[in-house]
TrEMBL record:
<dbReference type="InterPro" id="IPR000595">
    <property type="entry name" value="cNMP-bd_dom"/>
</dbReference>
<keyword id="KW-0805">Transcription regulation</keyword>
<dbReference type="InterPro" id="IPR050397">
    <property type="entry name" value="Env_Response_Regulators"/>
</dbReference>
<feature type="domain" description="HTH crp-type">
    <location>
        <begin position="146"/>
        <end position="212"/>
    </location>
</feature>
<dbReference type="InterPro" id="IPR018490">
    <property type="entry name" value="cNMP-bd_dom_sf"/>
</dbReference>
<dbReference type="InterPro" id="IPR036388">
    <property type="entry name" value="WH-like_DNA-bd_sf"/>
</dbReference>
<dbReference type="Pfam" id="PF13545">
    <property type="entry name" value="HTH_Crp_2"/>
</dbReference>
<dbReference type="InterPro" id="IPR012318">
    <property type="entry name" value="HTH_CRP"/>
</dbReference>
<keyword id="KW-0804">Transcription</keyword>
<protein>
    <submittedName>
        <fullName>Crp/Fnr family transcriptional regulator</fullName>
    </submittedName>
</protein>
<keyword id="KW-0238">DNA-binding</keyword>
<dbReference type="Pfam" id="PF00027">
    <property type="entry name" value="cNMP_binding"/>
</dbReference>
<dbReference type="InterPro" id="IPR014710">
    <property type="entry name" value="RmlC-like_jellyroll"/>
</dbReference>
<dbReference type="InterPro" id="IPR036390">
    <property type="entry name" value="WH_DNA-bd_sf"/>
</dbReference>
Amino acid sequence: MAISPDPRKNHLLAALPDAEWLRWLPQLEAIELPLGKVLYESGSTLNYVYFPTTAIVSLLYVLEDGASAEIAVVGNEGIVGISLFMGGESTPSRAVVQSAGHGFRLRARTMKDEFNRAGPVLHLMLRYTQALITQMAQTAVCNRHHSLDQQLCRWLLLSLDRLQGNELVMTQELIANMLGVRREGVTAAALHLQEDGLIRYARGHITVLDRQGLELRTCECYAVVKKECDRLLPNKLAT
């Protein structure tokens, strides 16, 4: 796959004012993000922040026994590595590419210097961070109170918002790891959605056939996350 030449396919980068954009452009490094690539591990010091353009990155919390659950997804609307400029330097979560594609990375020192200028970059990143925190909180509520069918619909919709088309390359095992459930549960939920004509699933490919049907089927958590993203970020960032 050819590397995407346009950093402004990432909405945060597209929202940078001209002065900041001209400073950043020579520093941005185009990278390929293959499925399953780990961008950082729990507790590791971040050397880069990442701006996906066509890839989706899952933020996972991994327990001592190896079990995991997704706490948020980041795609072309955002940045991976907020702990770097929030002052923590590291994070207890793991960042893994859940949908292959491309993106750009920026060195940690450059990101911190830009954030510490206390200008437009600081305000843009803080608004994005608030939107991401909302997604994390709503994910926790959803996983506790809503059915697996509803969780799967929410997860599919959040992923679709960050992709160009209507197809995801994703195995049931990977979805199970994201949602923190047994693979058999994902199989049953996916079959229900397929029987109702909402998706088609075959050999790791999920094709969404009826997005409106998914929106009607899911819980309120998807709408809460989307509304907050739309509220906090510029219009061209809205997914």
